[in-house]
């Protein structure tokens, strides 16, 4: 009798355990970080923690190389094979939402009240994605260079004006101590161009597209402000202040560190490596070209596929991942800006007094998202070509007019992209 009771008890326990395991509904997730061991370790830890924290859902992650990730998502969407959870580059999200690849998140938005603005993916008034980090650009300089050239150190409260910025470049060039006064990273002719350079255009008072309607680029890209920006932009190359599109990746990688460039326009993701080589590097805010200083915002974010049969579970995972400890882990692991001030205090680099704390402040004070429109996927490519053409000597007015025509034709072709 005792043996029978033991066997029955054992069977019941086994059944309960099997039932608990079976109760977890599988969720699929795609991620862009294949090949990055540090990043993969962190995201897999979040998945494991979530799976063991509750008994309703089990996330299964598959990682892709970043270079092929977007194409994989688009192909899967067309074939009806999207996973439940996807990550998406912030400026691409409106296109994926408009195209029917994504659905709004089901999360408690009070939990993201204190997130940096650039981490929130909003389209058509709804939150579709949220990021665990953001990125920011600053003007890299040396304290010794500022002293040598007799330059005022700009601050967030009092950045350089356009005249001060150009005075700095002129003095650096005239000193004869540098191959170039400024490096802009012109070798990277991808998303870097609109992310890094369109804020200069916006600081002049122009934009890639008219954001009041998103129905035209006329007057925004080729108006008086756009033309003034184009002339200024071209002068950086024609007057020899910066290397152009033929710059080699190797020169861009080492040019500031070895002293070939007096200043460099670069992101926080390169800051740690630069600090290791340059003792007196400082990260300066964007100059004010007349309408306020601006830098780009918006990096990779998490969202839920439109076809997911379990958006509640997918959203539950994303909400779980928003904990400060995970934001801090990503920041310490891959060097990007944590999404909240409280998470920043948990990091080595971004806490108060940390060597990269300035980037959090820059992101909070100067960051502006790229145009929030499904048409951005085309507009970014048109803008990139126009910036490269201007750097190579093309006529400013003709180039910007042609860019406007191409952008407007695409907007018309897509019936205004829902705006």
From TrEMBL:
Signal peptide as annotated in the record: 1-23
GO MF terms, alphabetically ordered: maltose binding
Similarity field: Belongs to the bacterial solute-binding protein 1 family.
Organism of origin: Cohaesibacter marisflavi
Record keywords: Periplasm, Signal, Transport
This protein's record includes keyword Transport: yes
A cellular component annotation (GO) from this entry: ATP-binding cassette (ABC) transporter complex, substrate-binding subunit-containing
Keyword field contains Signal: yes
Pfam families: SBP_bac_8
GO biological process: maltodextrin transmembrane transport; maltose transport
Source taxon at top rank: Bacteria
Protein name: Carbohydrate ABC transporter substrate-binding protein, CUT1 family (TC 3.A.1.1.-)
